[in-house]
Amino acid sequence: MFQILVQVFRRYALEHLHLRKPGFAILDERGNGIGYVEWIAVVGNRLRVEGWCDAERLALVAPGSRVMVIPSLNRPDVQAARGGNANLGFVLDAPYSAQQTLLSVETGSLRYMQPLSIFDRADLRRGARSLVWPFLRDMIGVVPHAAVWVMRRDPAAKARIKAALGFGDRRPVASMNVELFRDPDKPVAVPVGLTDTRITIVLPVYNAFDLLAEVLDRVERHTDLPWRIIVIEDRSSDDRVRPFLRDWAAKVEERLPGQVILIENEYNLGFIQSVNTALVAASRFGDHVILLNSDAFVPKNWASRLVRPILAHDNVATVTPMSNDAEIFSVPVICTRTPLAAGEADLIDDIALTFEPDAELAVTPTGVGFCMAMNKRYLAMVPQLDTGFGRGYGEEVDWCQKVRLKGGRHLGLPGLFVEHRGGTSFGSAEKLKLVLANNAVISRRYPTYDAEVQEFIRHDPLATPRLALAIAWAAHRQPGGVAMPVYLAHSMGGGADEYLKGRIADDIREGGSAVVLRIGTGYRWQIELHCATGKVRGVTQDAGLMARLLAPIVRRRVVYSCGVGDSDPVTLPDHLLALAEAPGSTLEVLFHDYFPVSPSYTLLNDQGVYLGLPDLTVPDAVHRNRRPDGRSVSLADWQAAWGRLIIAADEVVCFSRDSAEKVAAVWPAAGAILVRPHGMLHAVPHVTPPQGHPRPVIGVLGNIGHQKGVAVLAEMSRLLARSRDADLVVIGNIDPAFPLTPPAVVHGNYQLRDIPDLVARYGISCWLIPSIWPETFSYATHEVLATGLPVWCFDLGAQAEAVRTAMRCGAPGGVIALHEGRAPTETLTDVILSEKEDA
After folding, report:
1. Fewer Cβ within 10 Å of end Cβ, the chain: N or C?
2. What is the CATH number of the domain that holds 512?
3. Residues linked to residue 527 through DSSP beta bridges, in sequence order
4. What is the mean pLDDT of residues 116-138?
5. pLDDT for the residue numbered 730
6. pLDDT tens digits for 348-402?
7. Does residue 6 register a pLDDT over 80?
8. How far is CA 16 from CA 459, 712, 822, in A?
9. Do 409 and 532 share a structural domain?
10. Are residues 630 and 720 in the same domain?
11. Is residue 157 included in any domain, yes or no?
12. Number of domains observed in the structure of the chain
């Protein structure tokens, strides 16, 4: 047990270790500063160097290793400080090495080196020791899941163990509110006095002539409360603006006397002074004020929705709606601007109208002034914006912080979506300078503000409505005639997940988006929307909420990728069939493993060996499933449930001939079973066999658990420690229950581009694929074959299929026979080190 804890801690340290130190100025050969290394960090087992540099190329150079990058990341802060090109940022990332590492700078015909002051082994040991107590704390939370794993080998329990220890993606995911959507048959309660509440709209105008007609028309048509508007024309440089506003105000005055107040600044005063002038005028009326930009387009019935929280809840200072460009209120992705096509905003707002009015109102660090309701009570306390912010940007944050100190709260309103075509009043260069300078002022005045914003982003209390509105946007944005993909996938990573990333990238590249229903996260459903601007997600146990969120997607391409790790997997086929019932939808089933064939998705029996397809009459416990209510599912019932999905599918896709034959044997009535081998996820270069090592070195690529052959490696390392016929190195991680005997090495996390350097570092002379199940496709096998070194595997599944195909083309290596499903560990090294053969 102690050995297992040690192995788990080593993996924990690799995942969580993060050492960081400041860098240094990058000098050219004359000593002139041309850049800066801002941070040097060790993250897990990787070295990361970040900064900016005005050079053609930069590289990290260590013995046997060179990683190069062209500085190209956008750094507006550097441009603002020194002028010139903004695309000077870089990130260099390479496997960590304790050996001396140099930063190579190439500019013109010159190349020169600067040594990096990196962390030594003692630094890493100190960093690891600092993680002992967090590790022990997290291990307490693992105990219940570990008990389930030991008793039932439940993949969902294994996923929860990884999540509890922070292995993999550690970003929190918000639990979604099942009560977001209102009951259409239930009347909506209206706060007392709402329909009679008068509002004053403050609309500062500078240029943006092409938008004004629609902005003002929408205010007239869609404002559903008694209103007046104060328009401040700030001496626009576009001489069409002022005459247009005069004409518009005159026409409204004829119909509604006193409803429009047009203020014409003699000189350009800037946003803040213009708004302050209007706030002085508005104070005479004693109304709640709505600050509205001249590039904000309000939808129907917007005003009552925006003001409602002020009347319905205590101490509300501001209310800000959702938008396509409103920082923490942005849709689809938080803090990311997304331009909208004509009509999209109103379609998104139609979904916002279906929300329960008081559901998911989020307390936020600030409001955003593009469309912000301001409570007259707090305007009386702080009647003006601070003119110290110059022409604008940051002034509404300052006002919001001042009223927070007086007890005011700021709310985000999910039930209203307002389009914002930002950036039309100031040029981007001018805006950048203003934002940088004014953000610094905010940070000095309110030291906790930035951290509060980051915490809001991290936990996102608006996750449910943001995802609902994002899916509505994506469904409308989907290219014409193309069904939107809805993937069901596991959360365990690996080759299937890498394949899925490729599919999603293709969907986005073709102009669309994709939804992933991810299981095995600790919640029944993690719902993700992937689009060109990023990803938004939330989790829920409620299948009804999942279905409601997906309702705007009228045509779906439902794709089963993998269901391993689900809490009630025998019901997954019916969920997928229900999703595919939408008119014009299609259904595709992918066989990344054999989960539809058996709960033992690798087809290993209760002895941990593969002896062929499971027999329905053999009472093998691993081929049965237990539902959450305790009921047992026989293998026959399991295959019948999944058979409904397989037979209904438009396509059943296998990635090797071997797996297609197995699927056809289980379900002879299945329709089109297609064989589509994967392509390489990333190119792996051919490597030169290393020279000068005292012994052959057998390399193993990938993360190795039970079905991947970790027990084989543990026994092999024990034998090699005694015989010293060869060395063994795993480029990846292993199951900590099977520690390798030294001098065998476990490298840990890696990237495919690292393989040539790692082959050279460890002296790898051949590869072993130790997997003991018939894989449906083996990325690792194809990756090691691409290196050109000899590759060996057991006579199973797609891995043997790939090695035999390579051998027919002259590749070195071989296929090793199993004996009653078990690996011949005693003779394995002899076979691998022999000449090429089909053993």
Report:
1. N
2. 3.40.50
3. 517, 538
4. 81
5. 97
6. 999 999 999 988 899 999 999 999 999 999 999 999 999 988 877 889 999 999 9
7. no
8. 20, 28, 36
9. no
10. no
11. no
12. 4
- Share above pLDDT 70 across residues of the chain, in percent, rounded to a whole number: 95
Distance CA 490, CA 510 (A): 24
* Mean pLDDT, residues 101-105 taken together: 86
Dist CA 788 CA 386 (whole Å): 67
Question: Distance (Å, rounded) from C-alpha 52 to C-alpha 30?
Answer: 19
- Assign 426 a pLDDT band (cuts: 50, 70, 90): very low
Q: What is the mean pLDDT of residues 332-343?
A: 93
Residue 552 has pLDDT above 70, yes or no: yes
Q: How far apart are CA 101 and CA 103, in angstroms?
A: 7
Query: Is the confidence at residue 837, as pLDDT, over 50?
Result: no
- Span of 118-127, 290-299, 662-671, 775-784 with lowest mean pLDDT: 118-127
Range of the domain at 439: 194-459
Within 10 angstroms of residue 136's Cβ, the number of other Cβ atoms is 11
The residues, any chain, with a CB within 8 Å of residue 771's CB and separated by 6 or more, are 707, 708, 709, 778, 793, 794, 796, 797, 799
Does some domain include residue 387?
yes
CA distance linking residue 731 with residue 95, whole number of Å? 11
> What type of residue sits at position 792?
W
Within a domain: 378: yes
The answer to whether position 259 is within a domain reads: yes
CA angle 811, 813, 819 (to 5 degrees): 140
Bridge partners for 819 per DSSP: 822
Using alpha carbons, select from 488, 455, 542, 486 the residue that is nearest to residue 180.
542
Q: Pairing between strand 673-675 and 651-654?
A: parallel
Statement to judge: residues 411 and 484 lie in one domain: no
How is residue 88 written in tokens? 């000077």
Same domain? 354 vs 432: yes
Residue 231's Cβ-count burial label (10 Å; 0-12, 13-18, 19+) is buried
**Whole-number pLDDT of residue 24:** 86
Q: How many CB atoms lie within 10 A of CB 24?
A: 16
Give all strands (DSSP E) within 154-216, no chain letters.
199-205
Instruction: With a cut of 70, say whether residue 427 has pLDDT above it.
Output: no
Give yes or no: residues 366 and 319 share one domain: yes
**CA 35, CA 28: separation in Å to the nearest integer?**
9
> In this structure, are 201 and 314 located in the same domain?
yes
